[in-house]
Design a protein that fits this description.
Blueprint (H helix, E strand, L loop, with lengths): L9 E4 L3 H12 L4 E5 L6 H6 L7 E2 L3 H6 L5 H10 L2 H10 L4 E3 L4 E4 L5 H14 L3 E4 L1 E7 L3 E6 L5 E4 L3 E4 L16 H5 L5 E7 L3 E2 L4 H7 L2 E10 L2 E9 L3 E3 L1 H5 L1 H9 L5 E5 L6 H8 L8 H7 L7 H8 L7 H9 L1 E4 L2 E2 L7 E6 L16 E3 L13 H28 L2
Parallel strand pairs: 1-2, 1-10, 2-6, 10-20
Antiparallel strand pairs: 3-5, 4-5, 7-8, 8-9, 11-19, 12-15, 12-18, 13-14, 13-16, 14-15, 16-17
Helix pairs in contact: 1-15, 4-15, 11-14
Length: about 425
């Protein structure tokens, strides 16, 4: 092992959006910063997020935006006030990347800008600010009160760094090929830091379809529907798959499904096939069916519920009720039994990570002063639609501010 050295002043472990934004803001404040990334490039998960259209953030009003973080809305209200969606758009524009608000409120770069364009511009800015990037360097754990053990995976050499402050931003446990593999958990648990077990978030739901249904339906979308679970309703488009259901409404309800599955109670998604038609009006339409008219033909012609809806109804309710009022309620609350969630590796994001009780308001580990945490390492989750990336950016900016204050206090105590 090579001897320890004191540079850099701030070490940031991880190369995702939380890490890189913190590095930028600290370097802009005149601090010496080095970013350590185990992969051969930084921003790998950032680029993966761009494959679905590169949804950076959302234009939703601030109060509703914070509520998207569920039980941690209060914490994120502070983070978002410090680095808001408006701030994120201004940051991108400063890098030469203009953005626009889509019809759903999601914020995207202009079509001429690709995800790699933004990352390249960002890395140029970091280089101009003097931020050092050390790729193919893996964090092995702590050394003493302030030290970090690092492995240079190119040379096989192990070194120790002793920065004044450290930011850990190693991601959660989904998309392990990008580096978010959760291997850091034992290193923190050795310090006595409590970590909540990882669980899939924003993922598909498993349904035990019959072989007939899987063969006949395959992968088929259902548009303009609504799903509900445990009192929460989400509208959008879902996809029937061989294993169950996918789609934004399904992803948004994974916290509720996970809670129901963990409690051992039946976990159901309730599907509203006609969310724009009031229940009495729907029942009145159902009364128009002639006795000679088949249900599949009637549903297709009068209610525009075309295949695969009749097959789905037959799968979930073998005998449809003939009473129009009962059938109307069924069409607006069709129960779909969920057997489980898709594996963590397939999930867009993960729940779990460092428990909030383990960090101060500034996101510093209580068990290790001078070491901070940001991004998906913390135990939070949010739906897709820009909320995940915004959460990473905002926690990174918040941690950077806390690190600056921490260093200023240390300097004051030292009489500098």
């Amino acid at each position: 092992m090579q001897p320890a050295f004191s540079f850099p002043e701030i070490a940031i472990i991880g190369g995702g959006p939380a890490a890189l934004l913190a590095a930028q803001r600290l370097a802009e404040a005149g601090r010496r910063v080095a970013v350590v990334e185990a992969q051969n490039t930084v921003g790998r998960k950032f680029l993966v997020a761009g494959h679905g259209g590169f949804n950076l953030t959302n234009a939703e009003p601030a109060e509703a935006f914070a509520d998207r973080y569920g039980p941690h809305a209060a914490e994120f209200r502070r983070f978002l006030a410090h680095f808001s969606p408006t701030d994120l758009r201004a940051w991108a524009l400063d890098l030469g990347i203009d953005t626009f608000v889509g019809t759903s409120g999601r914020v995207f770069p202009r079509p001429e800008h690709k995800p790699a364009d933004l990352l390249r511009a960002w890395l140029r800015r970091l280089h101009e600010l003097g931020v050092q990037l050390h790729t193919r360097h893996r964090w092995l754990g702590f050394a003493g009160a302030t030290g970090l053990r690092l492995l240079n995976e190119v040379t096989g050499e192990e070194t120790e760094w002793h920065p004044t402050a450290t930011l850990l931003a190693l991601g959660g446990a989904s998309w392990s090929k990008t580096g978010s593999d959760g291997r850091w958990v034992p290193l923190l648990e050795q310090l006595g830091v409590q970590c909540v077990p990882f669980a899939p978030s924003n993922c598909g739901a498993e349904v035990a379809w019959s072989a007939f249904f899987r063969e006949k339906v395959g992968r088929t979308p259902l548009k303009n529907v609504a799903l509900s679970c445990q009192g929460r309703l989400v509208r959008g488009e879902i996809l029937l798959t061989d294993y169950g259901l996918e789609g934004t409404p399904v992803y948004a309800l994974t916290p509720q499904l996970r809670a129901a599955l963990a409690a051992g109670t039946p976990a159901y998604l309730h599907l509203n096939l006609k969310p724009d038609v009031p229940l009495p009006q729907l029942a009145e339409k159902l009364r128009q069916r002639r006795a000679s008219q088949s249900w599949p033909k009637f549903l297709a012609e009068v209610l525009r519920l075309k295949p695969p809806v009749p097959t789905l109804l037959r799968e979930l309710v073998p005998e449809l009720p003939v009473d129009p009022d009962t059938l109307a309620r069924l069409l607006t609350q069709l129960p779909i039994p969920v057997a489980g969630l898709r594996p963590l590796e397939e999930a867009i994001s993960s729940a779990g990570g460092v428990a909030w009780s383990e960090v101060t308001e500034g996101l510093m580990l209580r068990q290790r002063p001078g070491t901070f945490v940001a991004g998906e390492m913390l135990d939070w989750e949010a739906p897709t639609g820009g909320y995940l990336l915004q959460g990473c950016f905002s926690t990174g900016a918040w941690a950077a501010q806390a690190i600056r204050r921490y260093l200023e206090m240390k300097n004051e105590k030292a009489g500098w």
